[in-house]
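Late entry, written up from scratch paper. The run itself happened at the end of the previous shift, but nothing got recorded in the book at the time, so transcribing now.
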Amino acid sequence: MSLSILDLAPISSGGTAGEALRNTIDLARRAEELGYVRYWLAEHHFARGVAGSAPAVLIGLVAAATATIRVGSGAVQLGHQTPVSVVEQFGVIDALHPGRLDLGIGRSGQRRAEPAPARPPGQEARVVDGLLIPPPFDWSRLAKVPRLAFQASLLQQPGAVTPDFADQIDEVLALLKGTHEAHVVPGEGADLRVWILGSSGGQSAQVAGERGLPFAANYHVSPSSVLEAVEAYREAFKPSDELAEPYVIVSADAVVAEDEARARELASPYGLWVRSIRTGEGAMPYPTPAEAARHVWTDADRALVKDRIDTQFVGTPETVAERLRVLRRVTGADELLVTTITHDHTDRVRSYELLAEAWERP
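Output as recorded:
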């Protein structure tokens, strides 16, 4: 198997955070039975529809509920924590579940991160060897939402200044290896693998490559720049004690059902959910298909989510598996990281079951 799972611990409309977290543990157990390689938990804050705000806590619960599947973060937002706190958290979990942890780290939350470039005027979608690469989404509009700036201020101590991302990664690695002047226990010598997650060919890809770490590229969040990201990582790669060659995992959104119509129905709330994120509201509780159908879409709404809708993998097991193989081939990914959200938990579990079965067939 070369498939893994990224779970946001989604809260469905009418549901609770407790239900979402219990669903996460149930899905992790089933993923292990199905042979998925790893189970990653995302970090999101101030979102009514996501329960995964504390990935280290949730990773510990998932690791305790499973036995063999690798468990990790996709990703810890290092801009909101110190390297010491991250290494200590994962060191505690590793002490109880050695050899199963992935510490995925992202630049999200860094106040000094460069602003997202404006969307190039007139840029068109393109197809590269069968893979859709849509025009880039203009993230600069979210930087103007006052609510988001206020929320970001709550995630750091007043006056705190986040160090450069590369320096933070070096400190994490030194703490784990025991070469830092400070020694953390648990944490030092922990048997875990550090990953870097990135959405472009910028600093994250460069840091991952230069330090010989595995890299995760986000097709499901930023499909327009996935090829740029993996190319920059491979060009920057230097062999390390961890890796002799580059190792890439690429993420994708997918919904699978026994027939096309059912899959489309289950995936129909996705656009409305993405809209809630991109308008700065934060991920809403995931709607039912009926609730989503009542939304009156404007042209602006459709443009806001078009890249994510067009690059979601929806359909029968055979159709989705084939499209995911195209994604893997074009990006050269060693592994794919699949995230599936449906309103009903049973449909989400079934989607992963059907995908695993189709992926393993010749």
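DSSP finds 13 helices and twelve strands in the chain.
(Scratch paper discarded after transcription.)
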